[in-house]
Write the structure tokens for this entry.
Amino acid sequence: MNNTIPIIDIFAGPGGLGEGFSQLKDDKLKFKIALSVEMNENAHKTLELRAFYRQFNKAPKEYFDYLNGTIDREALFAAHTVQAAAAQIEAWHHQITQEGIQDVIDRAQQALKKFKSKECVLIGGPPCQAYSTAGRSRMKPSNKDFEKDPRHFLYRHYLRMVAKLSPAVFVMENVKGLKSATIDGELMFPKIKDELSRPGEVVKELDGLKRAPSRAEYRIYSLVKVESSEKDLAGSAVKPLVPNDYVIKAEEYGIPQRRHRIILLGVRKDIDPSLAVRLVKIAGEVNTADVLDGLPAVRSGITAYDDSTWQDWVAAMQEGLSGGEFDYVDPKTLKCIKRAIKAQKAALDRGAERYAAPVGKTNALHQWYRNDCSRLNMVLNHSPKMHMLSDIWRYLFCTCFAEVHQRTPKLSDFPDNLLPNHGNVDADNKKIAKFIDRFKVQIPTRAATTVMSHISKDGHYYIHPDAMQCRAWTVREAARVQTFPDNYYFEGGKTAAYHQVGNAVPPRLAWQIAKVVAEYMKALAT
């Protein structure tokens, strides 16, 4: 087996899984993306740019000129036509459908021909909205709509890829809600596991083929727990794994957020079944303050202002205080609010200006963030959202409440006049209304809550803990919590970038998964 293992990445998003595998540095083996497939235009542009970056041992000056805003994308690719062409072949803008799955298989097989290795690894996360708890609740009480949602069966495109490519190993990611999702009364999790274990036979049945595309069968492993058929020391049979045993709690593996996802590891049955390599837990959570350290302080703009200045920003804080917006908050929080307003002395920018690249800390995670950033003249994707004036006051209350009480406020903690102007919330029901934590400060001494694509719509769940900044996270801050390197640029507008970050697999978690996969690949070679 050649020591460069090609990766096929489908449903790739902005490339979180692929980035983690690409960053693995092992003396005996390395991974290289052969093909990544993504339907979203902006996510594809992000993928393509990163594919271009990885064509070089040392990124060229023009790459950083592009990131620093001195040349456009066309000029960047024109300066390095060979590498640009390779990146455009590697990152494919394409929607995977049942009718067109053979095109994807053909293109993957063509991409694999360029590698000396006879083996490959398949990675990806079929879109998961249909399995998410929020997605299912939105469809109720119309269960018929939920049962008919075609997104339930997108995993079968992945299944067909496994059947046709016979990868040595595959990694499939999905939301935790898959554990309990049902179709016509049948639990989907055991069904998906069963079908992935014998993909050739299943595809033969699904597609009415005369014979199976391959005979390859797979053992489906948890990445965090070893299953054994042996008896324990007391002589009792060891219980088989349950769906919850396949859930990876990212905060237990050095990722600075409480992100819980199902990830299935499929290993072809000809690979040594006695090998039991799993992720290694890391003691202690990585907290939000450490992750955001080094990023410059910025402020939001104010909706309905043509171009709010820093003086407008400070005046807005003072207006909230003098206008009685904070009259009914508890005394300790009010004292903190007054202190935060009085301390507004250093003019904060909205992020449009170039910033010197942050220094950050010297620990391993910050070295991961800051690798190959010395030529950046700005912090990428670090321009904050615009906020309504009333939300800025709410954020000021929330951050000061969190600082004083060491927890984010619930709606029941809000003074009535600061309650959001939502139809399902008022002074009478604020203790029992849905989503009572809809304004959530990310506490600096703890790991963050899960970064989700909903951050693209509003930032209420992702309030920066610094009352001096009084805003939601920027894309870059969300990207750091997702462990994307600081030189990873998200294409498209701000909304598109937030959406990409929220849907991604954390690259540093993927890097740890790549270590596990590498051990199985090396076992295959021996």
